[in-house]
Here is the input.
Amino acid sequence: MPQDYRRFNGPEDSVSYKRFTKDYLKPYNILNDELLNAKELRQDGRALTEARSMCMFFATTQVVSQAKGSAYVERDKTKIICSVFDPREIPHQNEFSQLGQIYCEVKFATFSCPRKRRPHAPDAEEKALSVALRKALEPAVCRHLFPNYQVDVFVYILEHDGACLSNAINAAGLALADAAVPMYDVITASTIAVVGDKIFVDPTESEEYVALTSPETNINHGVIILSMLPELKQISDFTHIGSMDAECITNAMDILEKECIKIVPHVQKVIVANLVKGFEERKKLEKEAAEREQLLNTKMEEWKKLLNAG
Amino acid sequence: MSEVYKLIHPVKFFNDYISKNVRPDGRSFSEQRNIKLNVDAIKTADASALIKCGNTSVICGIKLELATPKAEEPNKGFLITNVELPPLCSSKYRPGPPSDSAQVTSNIVSDIINNSKCVDLTDLCIVPDKLAWVLYCDMLCLDNGGSLVDACIITLMASLKTLRLPTVTYDPETEDIKVDTNVQTKLKLNGLPIATSFAIYKYMDRNVTLVDPSSYEEDMCGGLGANLILCYNKGFLCSSQKFGGSNFSVDCEEKALKIAKERAQLAEEVIDVCIKNYESKTNTV
Amino acid sequence: MVQQLPTSNKGGSSLLVQVQYDQVKEKCDLLSKDFDTGLESVEFCNKNISRFNLVGIEAILIRVICGLVLQNTVNYNIYKGQTNKCQNINVLTPDRRRLTFVMAGLLLSPTEKVFIVHGVQDDYRSDGRSNIDYRPMELETDVVSHASGSARLRLANTDVLVGVKTEIDIPSPDKPNEGKIEFFVDCSANATPEFEGRGGEQLALGISNLLQRAYHSSQALDLKQLCIFEGKQCWKLYVDILILECGGNLCDAVSLAVKAALFNTRIPFVKAALMDGGNVDLQLSDDPYDSKLLNVGSAPLLVTLCKIGDKCVVDPSAEEESCSVISVIVGITGIPNCYCDGGDSLEEKEGKFTTIDMSGPGSLAPKTLKNAVSQGIIAAKLLDKALAKALLRERQENVTLKKHSYGFLK
Here is the structure.
């Protein structure tokens, strides 16, 4: 691994202190048992099929003032910020592209993951997430309207507590809408984790971790992320890791579809609120401009009178 | 209308404001922006803080790791500070390795923290020559609205102030390490360095010093970021750096030093209040 | 404005050349005489495009988008009614900028598209296959002598070479009793014009990610069989995939070749182990036949289902690909029983999904996705059985006869 001279680097052999705590390396069974309590409720008190309540906060100028459009999505502990910039010509290409392109970059903050510190340089997981995000957004955007141009979408995951990709897609959809990029439909996404016969809707990080660990027995396990254009009833991306049978997949698809549709009113509310705010701001500005003009006109009249009198 | 004017006559637009002794965002020359601080915003980090200062928002997260100390400094730990300017925060930055301005900002922040000696690195050593703490402090800029260094230092200090180190037991014979997260100690801090940025603008034949400049003002005064950064720790000047911009006179300097000192006290109060609120909240819960 | 050029009956098939141009007409002067002489070269006398050669093209459609050069679109539609072959045309412009035009994106007339869509609807495709039939393929194992295992697969025009290298590594702390596997895809610049420069990187990354995800679960490949000494040492498999020629349906071909190479992989036995303090010193067997084979029966196969109309087909031809905007890629675990001798009689386990992904710019309806998934599992089962049969036969031949090799590498 080449040394990164552009940053300050710590010692090479440093390891997270969590490796030496008692909780590290708990066997799979214990971790699995810990996910549900006696009342069949999850660690944070949710039922299996219950998604974390969506408290979204969305604004143009408040989140990233320098960007064309931006959004911030927070789902309990998972925190994601996204910004979208003006289209620019596609760099380094000598062929004319009929369709506009979407450039996506997903990055984890170094301190975002509970288990280990993330490196500064993009790793394989971040690259895979970037590709998945691009694939999910592409069918939603009217790309033929900006040929040979690309729109940059940057996503930063500030805190990772499960369902990262789906919330990144939600945030990116909102940011694109905020940046007034023409789209066919809003885009929503949701995640589920499967462990055996249990299906966790909108999983937390520890639930995802167990779902992705290979169990000893031949049970279903894995994580599925589905993104949708809800009004058009189209699936724009479907990502699945793990191992499960066909019945489980079809079952999961139905659940995910319903979850995606459930988010739509929240997203619409945010977009409408943003629109109303923008409209009011504009009205206010117009009013101020009119007042200024009137003031100027009266002054002009006064001067004219003075001149005429003189 | 004013937006168009700003685009066509950028210098004249700015001069018009300066001549009226007011800044484009309505502040007076020596007025700073409000500071909003949120401590322990990120639960996955060992300590964190988010600051919003006008449009500028910076988030700092600290991750703790263990490593063997350097052979030449066997009784010292590590404090690694990095400032990240992702492409997300402004259209000025492109994806890829850190840009020049990110490296410059990183260096300034690191210099200030090292020069002020607010963290004694020997405190971070657990067993000399064997085991020491590594504090990875990453400051992530979410929105670059000017005076980046000020915001970085405040959020870094607030995070360091809330940082708690778990106890570590080291068995010299078996080289076994055990960490107990239930018993935690606070990190000792020597004072609280606070930086204040200034932009210096030459208007007619006088120099105007703008306190806590926005990114637009920084651009107008030339150079990357602020022109002058002064840092005070416990009422003493611990760092002073000047980059580009216009020259400035002695009386201006005196005034700037006074403002920086006052601001340091003010920011310190803000941090203290925020941390007190946070601690009382965590204790009651 | 459409100009019809004279058709010739060379080689028993009609050649139709259709040139559409209007604004470029003054700039572009097409010399048509070359078409009669067997379509060896097409020449443009033009300020921007000097000349380009088409060598050995049987039937082709070129879509030249001169976004930078002419700011105009010229369509050359040369049609011969035979199988299509991808060709690469390099246009040398006076400023020495090489522009590459891709002919993989075939243009079909609406009627032809309708014909293909209707065929797919009735489960009878234009080349006589059903929706879950693959084209014939060639498979050869043990082609690279320095690798622990290797395979080469040719499916239509797609050619893939896979080599497996083994190395000793330290297991990751959170999985002390498991080995490691890593995939690396290299797209040769000659494979398709798109790969020139850095074009292949995205695709290579996509395929290696997909494989990594497909092999993620222990139900796909049990990494415990790669463990040497728990927590201290394990085998790491480097699977290097070289794409020699890209003629579509890449994922399926790669996954087949990877499984064949893993089936062929031999891991040397450990002769002795010495404990030296905390470190383990291993002594490996030198004899290449004193080695174990991996149990790869359950390794997943990737099946690409190309959506045409409301239905999906596997292994699409170039014409079929141009009728589709999206395909679903499913990774399905193999049937372990088929890979043991005489295991056909045993009860078969239903395959499980290890990964599902979508590729292409379009989207699809939930119902279509469900159909595609259930279709994929059937196709994968047939494919896996065929692969098992071929691999077992190859192994048998290796033991009994002197190996008769077909490939270019031997």
Summary: The longest strand of chain C covers residues 233-245.
